[in-house]
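User: what does the whole thing look like in 3D?
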Amino acid sequence: MSKFIYPKTVEKWCVFEVTVKGPSDGNPFIDYKMRGTFHSKNETKTVEGFYDGDGIYKVRFMPSFEGKYRFAVEVNFSDKVYEGEFTVTPASKNNHGPVRVANTYHFAYEDGTPYYPIGTTCYAWVHQKMELQEKTLETLKDSVFNKVRFCIFPKHYLYNLNEPLTYPYEGTPCDSSFLNEENFSFSQEFKGNSWDFKRFNPKHFQLIEKRIQDLMDLGIEADLILWHPYDRWGFSKMSKEEDDLYLNYVIARFAAYRNVWWSLANEYDLLKTKTLQDWERFASIICEKDPYNHLRSIHNCMALYDFSRPWVTHCSIQRIDVYKTTEYVDEWRTRFKKPVIFDELGYEGDIDQGWGNLTGQEVVRRFWEAVCRGGYATHGETFVNPENILWWSHGGKLRGESAERLKFLYKILCETPGHGLRPHRLSWDEVVAVPDTPLNMGEYYLIYYGFNRPSFRRFYFDDNTKYKVEIIDTWNMTITDAGIYKVIR
Amino acid sequence: MSKFIYPKTVEKWCVFEVTVKGPSDGNPFIDYKMRGTFHSKNETKTVEGFYDGDGIYKVRFMPSFEGKYRFAVEVNFSDKVYEGEFTVTPASKNNHGPVRVANTYHFAYEDGTPYYPIGTTCYAWVHQKMELQEKTLETLKDSVFNKVRFCIFPKHYLYNLNEPLTYPYEGTPCDSSFLNEENFSFSQEFKGNSWDFKRFNPKHFQLIEKRIQDLMDLGIEADLILWHPYDRWGFSKMSKEEDDLYLNYVIARFAAYRNVWWSLANEYDLLKTKTLQDWERFASIICEKDPYNHLRSIHNCMALYDFSRPWVTHCSIQRIDVYKTTEYVDEWRTRFKKPVIFDELGYEGDIDQGWGNLTGQEVVRRFWEAVCRGGYATHGETFVNPENILWWSHGGKLRGESAERLKFLYKILCETPGHGLRPHRLSWDEVVAVPDTPLNMGEYYLIYYGFNRPSFRRFYFDDNTKYKVEIIDTWNMTITDAGIYKVIR
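Assistant: Here's the predicted 3D structure for the full assembly of 978 residues, as structure tokens:
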């Protein structure tokens, strides 16, 4: 291959990549550095490159403007400066740019198009065999889901005892042949891992970025989980220096993908090897090194993180009570003044675990509660099946009843006037959402009755206005015109 | 009639009544007093009598022992002492005596038979027309319910705008002809009531005590609500003296009925005319004047009463959260160290109000949550119907699906070893009940999965014991033998 490769054009908000051939002696992940500066009339950004194995170095950049750009790439293994020009072409029809916080509690793509997250969870889908990964993408293509939460490190957990397709580091894993669902325990200790935490396995990361790109092509955000506690390989117990090396590598590789979100951890409070100082240091590194300001959060098990920290762009929450889940969304909106995404409200399924055996109706109810209280929620599925392929971790195909109903919910969100909903108090026994802007007050009410079933209901708004009433059946997915009403008292 | 009447025999724990003819001039409710002392080998009790209209005075006594008794009745309108003897015969088969607190958190009849309350609510059934009252009794006869909550004063509320069959006082009510469901508001003011709060209407109380007796004959406890805020007649706004007069009259008339429970109020905290001092004064009067120590409590709307007060025998609770209801039972057990009865967990029905449109499934779920956390619960029904007869207030017939399932729950409670259940922690995602005595530990577990649906479940108790597993379907009311298991790890 040539020693210096780059394309002449790139689409706005897509990945522009400069490839340089260099040395492969020593430890190139540590010993050699690469830095690119990208410049146009409207922006100048300097980003770090990374070693991709086989003597190949890359630096990636996501342009935010159309038109002419120049770049200069420096490496510490040569005095040469690699320079060039390229043209950024307009965004194609389904490319709206990265997702940003808009209107305090909601989201929009960078081009201003509202983004209403209806996420799903496939924690370890990129660690499964390729055929299954392809099937997951097919399923996602036909679904409403526009965000997927998944892990960079492989996952060791109930239903997740197999070895991953690739490992993030050079080395060999501990023996796992004795593991089964009966002898699995979350706090097991494993011996026999042998990894070089200073030498990444580029294949592992190449696969993940291929999947990030696949999701991007489907219009789906990649909510990347950087650390998690479901580990038998030691990836959750590396030193500070190794953690930081990993984080820098991940940012250098993935940040140029517009659909990346940074989720510092899943169940951060179960990672006993990390302190609050560690999470705050990781956040600082991301704030410093990610030039695109991708969305950032961290996900809890028992204890909410302090989402009021300035680096947190939105709350990524797991339920903290068995019975009340998304019913807390309005409280958290008020408390944190940021968008609330209920990223774990329990999963539709029938496995033995209490977090994984909800009915489809309960999942749909929790979604509506979240949305009508001005937040968002994330789906997952955990059905027992002969292949032992559970959507929540492995991907594959959907088996539940909720996913279809979430399409219907998404349609209603898109049809709602304004941009996003906020909770509005009418009465204690209903959840009322109104458009999240004072200008639309009184024009539109979305009233949700949860597990209740009133056969009729009296309303009073004012003495004069006529209201058009539509009855939404959130399960049967019907909207029935109930006529025009004015004051009836 | 004769001037002095009493029977020669009475059954143990039944009502022995002495009738004396006296003056009807002045205000006999105030001017004349009557007192009876009842004496046997095992007990001596002095109780107050009451004026029953038409120059008739009565004093009532409930004997707690078999055998010979003597009595002496004094009146302040004559120097004569009315004396006599009677024999107390053994309790008949279905007469187990008054219900007492047993084993800190549970109940038993005085003869030691366990009493597991499965209550229902017919607030105003004794104020409806006679035909409907008879129908209510028929329904209760075929039901599992062994406690009914109802009010002594008539009820003014949504679906309760009609005039009662009788009034508790002499006088005339305000005009109610203009009232309908649309113009009803809870805080309406009414003018035009004209009552003499010092002259009771004995017919009102005669009817209620007939109904207490009817319930007793069916083996049902009468959970009498002494005050409530649903009032347009002014019965909730009487003076301290009038309140005390009323309470003394009620105790003198009703205390001898073994199935009476004293519920000081429904939604005490909505009675803005009463202070905590008032409730405590009422409690003191009951403690002083009720010689049989009937069960005593008070029922909240938003704020729990301090059930740790010594006079409170058990907690009579209304839910204080829309979503979490009976899930709090174990917390309250720990806090108050008394039996917890969740007397209002919402009603099965489909009316417009959020407290009255639960599904039967949700009501049954809340009952099981209460019971498996070591408490008890109370049923109610509020279905829209052409006759506008709602069980929760008027009685009549049952329309819902929960009542049948509560029979099944009751059967399981009766079959459970020991006397009552207590919560036991195995895992966060299940509600485990064990017999509420340390002696039975490890013998029996009742594990409830609420709205979850695990298709399988692993358990570990110890390495050796074999367990017989039965799967209880709380809705379809089946018990399936799942075989014998021993340790499987």
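In plain terms: Chain B touches chain A at residues 182-183, 321-324, 327, 350-355, 357-359, 362, 384, 427-430, 449, 451-458, 488-489 (CB under 8 Å). Residues 421-485 of chain B form one domain.
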